[in-house]
Specification:
By secondary structure, the protein is of the alpha/beta class. It contains seven helices and eight strands; from the N terminus they run E-E-E-H-H-E-H-E-H-E-H-H-E-E-H. It binds 3-methylbut-3-enyl trihydrogen diphosphate (IPE) (2 copies) and magnesium ion.
Length: 248
């Protein structure tokens, strides 16, 4: 596993899977008297920086919360801005991500998305499918309760038509029916903007994730803030319900 040291002291292990709730674009803009859309545009720049930095640091999987199932309740104009930025991000950044050997995955409900947005997301996954570098998981039209309900639907389907026995439905089994079952749970979940909640993000997978809440608004996020969050993570002691490791 990759070891890093940001402050010249001994290296520590980089979390394998980091997930980020990119929050605070609107407040970043409001604080500057700018429209919320400008905050979202600057948020995409922060995302570019962060993907680059995460790759350099040696993070294996980066999951980003880009649009929640509940974000449809925002004004139409803001939804248009956000969808426009997703399109732009894929059109402009996909080839660079691919060049950098990044593998793109998407979690969330695709069924209800328009054909063009669904097509772009599929194109991103398809183009980068065989890449072996960092995995970038884009949570789009994503809600964790909805994901768990989808898993329940798929597992019910397996009971009905593939002979799965209800007695064999364990937590591990249910995990196999989530949107990205092959990926490990996030080690670290970062939320920017000072809010301290998960807002329906990765509820199943966050059972033992370390949570780091930062006051920074997302458009100001950069490599330094990412390193701060990882340093904080490195100071945590993960016990998974067991006892502290001997000698620590
Ligand atoms: C995060 O910023 C981006 C999305 C939710 C898509 P917000 O738009 O939530 O910004 P605030 O929280 O209103 O400042
Ligand atoms: C969570 O942020 C969703 C994303 C970052 C995409 P929100 O801004 O939607 O969450 P709440 O409404 O403050 O809980
Ligand atoms: Mg918000």
């Amino acid at each position: 596993m990759a070891k890093v040291s940001f402050d010249g002291t001994s290296g520590f292990e980089v979390p394998r899977h980091v997930a980020i709730i990119m929050d605070g674009n609107g407040r970043w803009a409001a604080a500057r008297g700018l429209p919320r859309g400008e905050g979202h545009r600057r948020g995409v720049e922060a995302l570019r920086r962060t993907v680059r930095a995460a790759g350099e640091i040696g993070i294996g999987i980066l999951t980003i919360f880009a649009f929640s199932s509940e974000n449809w309740s925002r004004p139409q104009s803001e939804i248009r801005d956000l969808l426009g930025l997703l399109r732009l991000f894929i059109r402009k950044d996909l080839s660079e991500l691919n060049r950098n050997n990044v593998r793109v995955r998407v979690i969330g409900d695709r069924e209800t998305l328009s054909d063009d947005v669904r097509g772009l997301l599929e194109e991103a996954e398809e183009l980068t499918r065989n890449n072996s570098g960092m995995t970038l998981v884009v949570a789009f039209n994503y809600g964790a309760r909805q994901e768990i309900a989808r898993a329940a639907q798929r597992i019910a389907e397996a009971v009905v038509s593939r002979g799965l026995s209800p007695a064999d439905i364990s937590a591990d089994k249910l995990s196999e029916f989530m949107d990205a079952p092959d990926l490990p749970d996030p080690d670290l979940i970062i939320r920017t903007s000072g809010e301290q909640r998960l807002s329906n993000f990765l509820l199943w997978q966050s059972a033992y994730s370390e949570l780091v809440f930062m006051p920074t608004f997302w458009p100001d996020f950069d490599r330094t803030t990412l390193e701060q969050a990882i340093s904080e993570y490195a100071r945590r002691e993960r016990r998974f319900g067991g006892l502290a490791a001997a000698g620590t």
